[in-house]
Write a structure and sequence with these properties.
Blueprint: H1 3-24, H2 28-41, H3 46-49
């Protein structure tokens, strides 16, 4: 795994953790902010909203 791949996986893990918290807290504003962050980072929402 290259450094950029490792960084990307770390970003996805961070988004996933924060998504889980926003979902648990039913925080629509936080979810929207996470989507915006993901778009900025070039990460598809499915990569952090659907656990594998």
């Amino acid at each position: 795994m290259s450094t950029s791949d490792a960084q990307r996986q770390t970003l996805i893990a961070s988004l996933r953790q924060r998504w889980d918290k926003a979902t648990h807290d039913d925080d629509a504003e936080a979810k929207q902010a996470l989507f915006k962050e993901a778009v900025y980072l070039g990460i598809q929402p499915e990569e952090f909203t659907h656990h594998r």
